Amino acid sequence: MAEDKKLTTRAADFSAWYNETVLRAELADYSPVRGCMVIRPRGYGIWERMQRQLDCMFKDTGHENAYFPLFIPESFLHKEAQHVEGFAPEVAVVTHGGGKKLDEPLVIRPTSETIIYAMFAKWVQSYRDLPLLINQWANVVRWEMRTRLFLRTLEFLWQEGHTAHATEGEAEEEARKMLGVYRDFMEGWMAMPVVTGIKTDSERFAGAVRTYSCEAMMQDNKALQAGTTHNLGQNFAKAFDLKFQTEAGGVDYAWNTSWGVSTRLVGGLVMTHGDDFGLRTPPFLAPVELVIVPIWRSDEDKARVLEAAQKVRATLSAWERRKTGKLRVHLDDREGMKPGAKYYEWELRGIPVRLEIGPRDVDNNQCVLVRRDNRVKRTVTLDSVGEDVADLLSMMQTDMRVAAFERREANSVRGDVTYDRLRELMAGEGAFVYAGWCGRAECEAQIKEETKATIRVLPDEEFRSAEAPTRCVKCARSATAEALWAKAY
Ligand SMILES: [Zn+2]
Predict the structure, then answer these.
(1) What is the Cα gyration radius of the chain?
(2) C-alpha 433 – ligand 1 centre gap (Å)
(3) CA–centroid distance, residue 454 to ligand 1 (Å)
(4) 441 CA to centre of ligand 1 in angstroms
(5) How far apart are CA 437 and CA 11, in angstroms?
(6) ∠ CA 395-398-404 to the nearest 5 degrees?
(7) Which of 12, 23, 13 is nearest to 278 (CA)?
(8) Which of 386, 296, 371, 278 is closest to 332 using CA atoms?
(9) Which of 121, 320, 352, 415 can bridge 283 by disulfide, Cβ–Cβ 3.0-4.6 Å?
(10) Residue (of 289, 293, 291, 278) closest to 338 by Cα position
(11) How far is the CA of 384 from the centre of ligand 1 (A)?
């Protein structure tokens, strides 16, 4: 096959490797509209599984789904000063409809705070109506100049949670809680460890009081902002007159939060786990967990191998697990294609386990299981193949998370980091650098200018160094916080 051409290696050109992997694993394709992408079934299947699990986790924490319109009156965006300043440069605006110029232009939502809090203002009268805990699954549009498949596209899919609370404390608790939900999902399901913490003023969401983030390290040692939660304070409530009668009989503005993750996570999964053979998918999120490749030469062998393969498929497909449901199995019985070519294709597509079965295996009542993550082979008896496969998949899920965690820690730098060292690291292999910061925006801006590294977060306590840095890495003034520096997507 002509397409057997090897992938560019990660070491040679990580960015080229990423694009080739996304395209050749058939996750997504370029669209006729610049900056947009088409998500293909193999990519959408991963997103669907992400969506399903996150949706369960949102509902378990008391949220309900709703849907708000794609169009937002342009005047809404102007009601919150910081919000419009942050989003105006990247909004798409509809000026005509039905052949006529509109009285008021409509913005295509870049995010839905404005329209959602305008509606909340209608629905909330009393403290008894609070908290209001809503999530929506939607598409949004942000007119980005430089786009990358999954990581940054003009239109993308996401969820946005929006909540209203009676007290500041409850809103803060909600923003922190949802950050924890995101982290549990990213680590437990994507096998992608993250560092959590608070954003500095310069990286805060437009209109928020505080923004929290999950930051993951990709294999080029750059950070991916994988999910954010915002404590919006009363900023939007004041802009949209979202008031309620308090329990004490007074009137107060509600306290809001919003939080979101997007199809960017699919890109994060690729860049966390992929290798030079292509995609590797954590089993929990793989649309197909196991592919059966039957091997035969003669017609006589073909009949009995296929029969055995179908039997194995039936056994495995009926295998039910507590957390992840029925095993998702595919039998690749395509004719006229050598087993080696099939192996190559399924490895590229990141199917977690391959099951090979040939005439001699049938004679011996056995088959061979090959792990995609480390390519280790093991022969197992067909009598216990269900248990063996289920065990193997859950082991892989753990092993992939541990491997990603160890890689991140091996590329994290702590302690007394000099500015020269920081600059050298950012010009070279990259890293997560934990270093002191004086809290001044000018040091943050200068470092960004000189090294392209930004403060990803001021990390939560469990991620901070045992010994807190005492000096700002840039100006040597007293440090007011420990900051995580990295180049980012
Ligand atoms: Zn400083």
Answers:
(1) 25
(2) 15
(3) 13
(4) 8
(5) 32
(6) 135
(7) 23
(8) 296
(9) 352
(10) 293
(11) 61
What's the gap between Cα 207 and its chain centre? 23
Best CA proximity match to 223, nearest among 38, 357, 412, 394? 412
Which run of H or E residues covers position 367? Answer: strand 366-371
6 against 59, higher pLDDT: 59
Ligand 1 centre distance from Cα of residue 83 (Å) = 28
d(CA 450, ligand 1 centre) in Å: 14
Question: pLDDT class for 4, splitting at 50, 70, 90?
Answer: low
Q: Among residues 171, 169, 216, 220, which one has the least CA distance to residue 197?
A: 216
What confidence category does residue 218 fall into, taking pLDDT thresholds of 50, 70 and 90?
A: very high
| pLDDT on residue 3 | 53
Q: How far is the CA of 472 from the centre of ligand 1 (A)?
A: 5
Amino acid at residue number 269: L
CA distance linking residue 241 with residue 239, whole number of Å: 6
| pLDDT for residue 461 is more than 90 | yes
pLDDT digit string, tens, across residues 271-288: 999 999 999 999 999 999
DSSP alpha helices (H): ranges in 222-285?
Answer: 235-239, 264-273
Ligand 1 centroid vs 346 CA: distance in angstroms? 50
Q: How far away, in angstroms, is 372 Cα from ligand 1 center?
A: 46
What sign does the dihedral 385-391-397-398 (CA atoms) show? negative
C-alpha dihedral, 42 to 44 to 46 to 47, nearest 10°: 170
Distance 438 CA to ligand 1 centre (A): 4
CA 99 to chain centre: 40
Per the omega criterion (within 30 degrees of 0), is the bond before 131 cis? yes
Task: Tell how far the Cα of 475 is from the centroid of ligand 1, in angstroms.
Answer: 4
Tell me the per-residue pLDDT of 57-110, one tens digit each, with 9 for 90 and over: 999 999 999 999 999 999 999 998 888 888 888 999 999 999 999 999 999 999
